[in-house]
Amino acid sequence: MSAKILDGKQLALQIRSEIAERVQAFRQSTGIAPCLAAILVGDDAGSQVYVRNKELACAKAGMESRLFRMPGTTSTAELLELLDRLNADPMIHGILVQLPLPRQIDERLRPRYLPCTPHGVLQLLHRSGIALTGAEVVVVGRSDIVGKPLVSMCLQKLGPCGASNANATVTCCHSQTKDLGSVTRRADILIVAIGRPRAITADMVKPGAVVIDVGINREGDAIVGDVDFEAVSAIAGAITPVPGGIGPLTIAMLLENTLTAAKFAADV
Ligand code: NDP
Question: pTM for the complete prediction?
């Protein structure tokens, strides 16, 4: 039996034609033409073609596009200055920085504000001397505020505290994961954010593992985590308590973000 061909070209044409109809309706009702700014740094031959194709695609969809060419000697600061200007321009709706960029430009510029709880987890690991590089990290929970950002932050090449605060091999589990224990037992670093009191039991943890319990659950007057602290602390190499673990770090990172915002507003 030969495989069914999943034809991306035909599908893209169909989607682009649907978008063109929606653009037309949008322009008629608002008088605004969606506009994409493309930034091309240097003279990479492939990039010239890709950017040209994107400009043509915009035109066919009834969108506008503007091309900003910068020399191959452009610095990171100069590129950021242009990005700031385009971000502030109400007539620009999308910005494409065509990759690859010349070597002197840092493509891995990190966001200015990091989500507080995931950042707190990474700060705690770093300041406790626990490196992520090459470690098998299992994140249990995939919420937008904790699980998902943690996964991408552990995966990136440069973390908030440097390269050793990143570069993990990451697995993410959730309520539909089959045989959760067989996955969590693989973890050198197990991070749990599910909101289920004491759901992670000792048999689900590899002896010596680092266990980060993000969960905060109320049980009567008591606050407990997602990890069975008593049993797991007997076999883990390190563990965060609840309360007194990630919660206070989340607040510390909120203060960090507020100070960063104030410095940005004061332009210092
Ligand atoms: P959400 O309820 O948004 O997400 C919970 C996640 O856990 C979901 O992805 C869900 O899977 C998964 N999940 C639920 N039950 C199980 C299970 N039995 N096995 C495996 N996965 C499961 O929670 P949040 O991320 O917002 O919060 C999680 C916990 O962390 C809560 O206790 C919360 O109070 C605490 N928290 C603590 C903070 C702190 O500062 N320490 C900050 C933020 C949250 P699915 O997606 O499939 O539904």
Answer: 0.84
Say yes or no: 132 and 220 in one domain: yes
Told to judge if 263 belongs to the known catalytic residues of this protein, a careful annotator would answer no
Is residue 241 within 8 Å of 232, Cβ to Cβ? no
Backbone φ and ψ for 32, nearest 5 degrees, come out as -105, 135
Give the residue, by CA position, lying nearest to ligand 1 atom 31. Answer: 195
Residue 41 is part of which domain span? 33-111
- Point out the domain boundary residue: 73, 93, 111: 111
Catalytic site residue 98? Answer: yes
Q: pLDDT (tens digit, 9 = 90+) per residue, 217-266? A: 999 999 999 999 999 999 999 999 999 999 999 999 999 999 888 887 78
Our answer to whether residue 60 is catalytic in this structure is no
The maximal CA–CA distance of the chain, rounded, in angstroms, is: 67
Residues 196, 142: contact at Cβ < 8 Å?
A: no
Report the nearest atom of ligand 1 relative to the CA of 245: 41
Could you tell me the CATH number of the domain that includes residue 134? 3.40.50.720
Alpha-carbon distance values, 8 to 59, 90, 172, 181 (Å): 21, 33, 29, 38
- Which residue, judged by its Cα, is nearest atom 17 of ligand 1? 175
Last residue of a domain, one of 111, 145, 178: 111
Which tens digit of pLDDT belongs to each residue from 4-40?
A: 988 989 988 999 999 999 999 999 999 999 999 999 9
Of 114, 123, 174, 224, the residue with max ligand 1 atoms within 8 A of its CB, to mutate for a pocket test, comes to: 174
d(CA 12, CA 41): 27
Instruction: Take atom 3 of ligand 1 and give the residue whose Cα is closest.
Output: 143
58: its two tokens: 């915009």
Catalytic residue among 14, 29, 47, 75: 47
